[in-house]
Amino acid sequence: MMSKKRMEPYDAAWEQRYQEIHEEMRAAVGDLALAIVHIGNTSFPCLLSSPAIDVMVGVSNMGVADMCVERLAPLGYEALDEGGGPDQRFLKRSSNDSPNVRVHIVERSGEFWGEQLLFRNFLRENRDTAVEYAHLTKQLAKDDDLTKKDEFIANVVRRARAVD
Fold it and tell me: 43-64 pLDDT, tens per residue?
């Protein structure tokens, strides 16, 4: 079992902070990024969340992802092995005075990209499912069982694909 994470009520300032991060990243990576989007719990109004902003950067291939990693390093982003793998680069920037930032650089045509956007958009459009996810998030703040979260996300992605 993982250590419990600090969870906070939704903060409307997270969206403004994401916009600042987006502009900063866009200036650093330029046209290497096909798209930069806000994902994770801080992208959903009214959800309990760890105070970290998740950003997904869509690129054409993993060679370009590596170039993005190099360009983001001077901004304080550190490449981590966790959450990465051959199809994803995972970066983190820690801060004492604002939310931490976690960056997932993936192929825009890849499975991770599509699933993350399906999940995010489905929850934004389906209040009942978002409320159900909010309850799960509160439970995970206590017991941190990521299996439940992974199962929930997979189920939502299946439902979203059925609607698409």
Answer: 887 666 777 899 999 999 999 9
Location of structure tokens 């290497």: 32
Report d(CA 3, CA 141) in Å as an integer: 10
**Which residue, among 131, 132, 129, 112, has the nearest Cα to 59 in the 3D structure?**
112
Q: Which of 86, 126, 120 is CA-nearest to residue 106?
A: 86
Q: What would the DSSP string read from start to end of 70-92?
A: HHHGGGT-EEESTT-STTEEEEE
Sign of CA dihedral 80, 81, 83, 88: positive
17 vs 13: CA distance, rounded Å = 6
In one-letter notation, the amino acid at residue 154 is A
Helix 146-163 with 111-125: angle, nearest 10 deg: 80
